[in-house]
Design brief:
The complex is a heterodimer. By secondary structure, chain A is α/β, with parallel strands linked by helices. Chain A contains eight helices and 27 strands. Chains A and B meet through helix 2, helix 4 and helix 6 of A and strand 5, strand 6 and helix 2 of B.
Chain lengths: ~425, ~130
């Protein structure tokens, strides 16, 4: 069986929901949204804490409220969605092969495609923690699902490795549910998550944060009985003699997220090693014409507002592409990281839209800095630059129209 | 008079302004680092009585999922967070529930209500089936 669509969006988290809505609002007649789970909303459904949509809606929503708001809006449109639908392949000419219980295996021919598959958590295997392999080692997001949706407490005495936002949120959540969180251990010498989460999730509950520490051994036969933590040096190598045993029954890992790009790779889409997402233009178009990407499949964003903003751009442009109005008037230029810049998104500028740049610094700089775009001569002043806090910088198209060479972004001390 | 210095990290938005305050006899004499008015309000509230939104879950029967997410409809004193959690421990809901349905009024005397943060339809769950069979 075969389905036809103007715009097909893969994934219905905040990025996919927004992209589908804006493809519809931008005039696409036949928009199709595919979701592998049994309801729309993606990870928002388990993120029961507040802080969503502050910039976008000027409201302090929880994840489920934010999702419901988008879903209610979507239900008023003729956007079609298929649940329990797993996309198994995507070809460079935009044929999607998917499978679900009603249709079996089927194909979708779509004029344009929006990738919104999000990201997944790095696990024990990706950081190679030595020791035994007992029950009780979970990623923070899995624990979040257990507690917030399935109603299981993963453990009573918890150590958290990594200070990413989900780890911090889970430290508070498990404490409220009666578990004892013994500490959050972070290998870097600065926290991974947002500062507000350090305050309201750790400090509020007296949970200690240990920087420059990591777990060097997991102990326990059937169940985790404890972990060995060690201090690390500046090269992040454990310092001999600093080992300390912490008794616990659960270890949560909040050690980073990786964009989920198996489908993108199969479609021949070029990825970047820094973001682990597609090389993307400001229009959210990938290197394959007509395939757009948005949200955490592109790069792991700090805030849902940023995810949604990329969804708006991807949805709008996918609709334009599907309508056959897509013209590249001139060659795009590269956007490249300069001094003190580790991550940049997007990586290409194609002179169609304003350039909304997301920048992560290579190291914490606790001094006033200039964030500069050369050769555009654009300068943004900031009081500091921190790798865990993305900087968003919007550059109007007018200011970039005369550029012919690559745009370099750098951060320098003032 | 002695000047006492205090430091706050604002939690109102993701910017997380670092705010330095000088106090004289309990009164704020200077404040630095807040990028907006909300930061000032946050600090004054922290000095008086720290307030937080509480989000948690309540068990629900007859729904697709075991837990319903809920929140306080306004910030409550931080010192009462666990008291509210205790109050909620005895509650078990029955689907269907609509988003913003009030689950518990005036929780722990705070004047805040506990409200649902999503719709939860009535569906047959594995749990129901087990009960019927048993």
């Amino acid at each position: 069986m075969q389905v036809e669509a103007d715009v097909t969006v893969i994934g219905s988290g905040p990025a996919g929901l927004t992209a589908a809505l804006y493809a519809h609002k931008s005039g696409a007649k036949n928009v199709l949204l595919l979701e592998r789970e049994e309801e729309l909303g993606g990870i928002l459904k388990q993120c029961i804490h507040n802080g969503f949509g502050l910039e976008q809606f000027k409201k302090d929503y929880t994840g489920p409220e934010y999702a419901e708001r988008l879903i209610e809006e979507l239900e008023k449109t003729n956007v079609q969605y298929f649940l329990n639908t797993m996309v198994v392949s995507l070809s460079p000419n935009k044929t999607i092969t998917a499978v679900n219980p009603e249709k079996g295996v089927f194909h979708i021919e779509s004029k344009s495609v929006v990738l919104a598959m999000g990201c997944r958590e790095r696990s024990r295997g990706s950081i190679n923690i030595p020791g035994t392999r007992p029950a009780g080692v979970y990623t923070a997001g899995v624990a979040q699902r257990f507690v917030n949706i399935d109603g299981y407490l993963p453990g009573k005495e918890v150590v958290i490795l990594g200070s990413g936002d989900i780890g911090l949120i889970m430290a508070r959540r498990l404490t409220l549910e009666g578990a004892q969180v013994k500490g959050v251990y972070e290998i870097m010498d600065y926290p991974g998550g947002l500062k507000r989460n350090i305050v309201q999730c750790l400090n509020d509950f007296g949970i200690p944060l240990y920087l420059s520490h990591t777990v060097t051994e997991i102990r326990g036969k059937e169940r985790v009985e404890g972990v060995v933590v060690s201090k690390v040096d500046q090269k992040m190598n454990p310092i001999g003699g600093s080992e300390q045993f912490i008794g616990c029954d659960t270890l949560l890992l909040s050690v980073g997220l990786i964009p989920e790009n198996e489908l993108s790779t199969e479609a021949g889409i070029e990825l970047t090693p820094i973001t682990k997402g597609p090389v993307t233009a400001e229009t959210m178009e990938t290197a394959v014409p007509g395939i757009f990407s948005c949200g955490n499949v592109s790069t792991v964003f700090d805030l849902v507002d940023y995810v949604a903003e990329s969804g708006i751009i991807a949805g709008r442009n996918a609709a334009e592409f599907a309508a056959g109005d897509w013209k590249e008037e001139r060659n795009s230029v590269e956007v490249t990281p300069g001094e003190n810049v580790r991550m940049l998104f997007p990586q290409r500028y194609s002179f169609k839209d304003d350039l909304i740049l997301f920048i992560r610094s290579a190291k914490p700089i606790e001094k006033p800095v200039n964030i500069e775009l050369s050769p555009a001569g654009i300068r943004l002043k900031r009081l500091y630059a921190r790798p865990n806090e993305m900087v968003r910088l919007k550059v109007p198209r007018d200011k970039l129209k005369d550029i012919a060479e690559p745009i370099t972004v750098s951060i320098t001390e003032r | 008079m002695n000047v006492a210095k205090k430091h706050f990290t604002c939690v109102i938005c993701p910017l997380g302004c670092e705010i330095d305050v000088e106090l004289q006899g309990g009164n704020v004499v200077s404040m630095e680092g807040n990028k907006c008015q909300k930061g000032k309000e946050f600090v004054l509230q922290e000095l008086e009585e720290p307030m937080r939104i509480l989000t948690t879950t309540v068990p629900i029967k007859g729904a697709k999922w075991a837990m319903l997410p809920v929140r306080t409809d306004k910030a409550i004193p931080k010192r009462l967070l666990f008291k509210v959690i205790e109050q909620l421990a005895d509650i078990e809901l029955q689907a269907p529930i609509k988003m913003y349905d009030v689950i518990l009024k005036n929780t722990a005397g705070t004047g805040a209500n506990i409200v649902a943060t999503r719709n939860m339809k009535r569906t047959a769950t594995t749990r129901d089936v087990v009960q019927i069979d048993g």
